[in-house]
């Protein structure tokens, strides 16, 4: 643990300033009418100017946009750590390990699909704790088994080793990805909670626990829905992540086949039903899995915003900003990629998370 007292008032003041500079929904509507080079020029007139200028000599088009996005994201999240002290620093540093999980999943998918390492590299977000040298070494591996072996010194090695046997049996990446999620979320929650699913005490730290429980709940929904529709011979309940408050294993297995029942189950939970009325309507209106997943992302962001307004000096405001910054980067990336492959504006807008 970091020594010294936390400084949430200072950090949250800095975060409010950063939050105000994020793209508005109207900016995304402008971007969907632009080609990749126009998007890059638009970004150059925003707070992405430094990254676009620094990378412009080496990259162009969508590659320039993606490298600039990822470098900017990592810079902003490093700033959060630089500003923070004490327990607040610990909370943020542990939460940013989610990008280690993102990067490992991305590398595994790349190896699985025999993707060129340079293409994999454009999707990596260097904002976690894994060192660049470790990531570069993983990009050089020829098999998932070798990549797992290279992670022997990390906490991910043991769960991945167990999951690898199931991966070999089914040929699907789900067991490996779920092992990474479980290791991240369950360890993260154990640091601040009295146990998986426990109701937190009142106060700023309780809102951190509530946020983590909500993220686990929505991760469980997303994973179960993807599995149920994948056609893979895998039981969604077997990939349940402990720590949320919305489901048990039986609930998840029962509800994944019925959108309406699933949304009703979320709405009936007092914690979510009282705070997510707008998001619940978006969930009800979703007519595809991708729209439902985007509605879940919007719901989590709305929930984090609500928690940060209840306790302005808690870490919730920082977590809400992290989610909002992720949303900006993913939206810009989706627009650039959509324009590159010739999607029309309506198709691209369906890929965006807009509140």
From TrEMBL:
Subcellular location: Cell membrane
Top-level taxon: Archaea
InterPro entries referenced in this protein's UniProt entry, alphabetically: ATPase_csu/dsu_sf (IPR036079), ATPase_V0-cplx_csu (IPR014272), ATPase_V0-cplx_csu/dsu (IPR002843), V-ATPase_V0D/AC39_subunit (IPR050873), V-type_ATPase_csu/dsu (IPR035067), V-type_ATPase_csu/dsu_dom_3 (IPR044911)
One annotated Gene Ontology cellular component of this protein: proton-transporting V-type ATPase, V0 domain
Gene Ontology terms for molecular function: ATP binding; proton-transporting ATP synthase activity, rotational mechanism; proton-transporting ATPase activity, rotational mechanism
Main location per the UniProt record: membrane
Record-linked SUPFAM superfamilies: V-type ATP synthase subunit C (SSF103486)
Record has Membrane as a keyword: yes
Family: Belongs to the V-ATPase V0D/AC39 subunit family.
Subunit details: Has multiple subunits with at least A(3), B(3), C, D, E, F, H, I and proteolipid K(x).
Name the UniProt record assigns to this protein: A-type ATP synthase subunit C
Provenance organism: Haloterrigena gelatinilytica
Organismal lineage: Archaea, Methanobacteriati, Methanobacteriota, Stenosarchaea group, Halobacteria
Name of the encoding gene: atpC
């Amino acid at each position: 643990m970091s020594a010294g007292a936390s400084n949430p008032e200072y950090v949250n003041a800095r975060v409010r300033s950063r939050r105000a500079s994020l793209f508005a929904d109207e900016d995304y509507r402008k971007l969907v009418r632009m080609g990749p080079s126009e998007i890059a020029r638009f970004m150059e007139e925003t707070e992405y100017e430094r990254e676009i200028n620094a990378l412009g000599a080496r990259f162009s088009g969508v590659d320039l946009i993606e490298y600039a996005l990822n470098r900017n994201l990592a810079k902003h999240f490093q700033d959060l750590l630089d500003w923070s002290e004490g327990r607040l620093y610990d909370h943020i540093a542990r939460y940013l390990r989610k990008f280690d999980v993102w990067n490992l999943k991305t590398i595994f998918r790349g190896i699985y699909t025999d993707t060129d390492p340079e293409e994999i590299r454009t999707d990596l977000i260097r904002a976690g704790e894994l060192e660049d040298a470790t990531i570069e070494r993983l990009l050089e591996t020829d098999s998932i088994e070798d990549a797992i072996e290279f992670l022997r010194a990390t906490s991910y090695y043991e769960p991945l080793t167990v999951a690898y046997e199931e991966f070999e049996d089914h040929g699907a990446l789900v067991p490996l990805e779920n092992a990474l999620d479980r290791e991240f979320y369950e360890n993260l929650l154990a640091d601040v909670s009295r146990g998986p699913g426990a109701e937190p005490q009142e106060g700023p730290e309780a809102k951190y626990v509530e946020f983590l429980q909500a993220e686990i709940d929505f991760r469980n929904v997303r994973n179960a829905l993807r599995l149920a529709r994948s056609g893979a011979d895998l039981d969604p309940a077997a990939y349940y992540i402990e720590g949320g408050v919305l489901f048990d294993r039986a609930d998840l297995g029962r509800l994944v086949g019925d959108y309406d029942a699933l949304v009703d189950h979320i709405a009936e939970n007092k914690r979510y039903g009282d705070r997510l009325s707008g998001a619940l309507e978006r969930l009800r209106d979703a007519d595809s899995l991708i729209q439902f997943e985007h509605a879940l992302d919007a719901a989590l962001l709305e929930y984090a915003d609500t928690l940060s307004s209840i306790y302005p000096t808690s870490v919730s405001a920082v977590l809400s900003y992290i989610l909002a910054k992720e949303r900006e980067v993913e939206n810009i990336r989706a627009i650039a990629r959509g324009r590159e492959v010739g999607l029309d504006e309506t198709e691209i807008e369906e890929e965006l998370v807009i509140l």
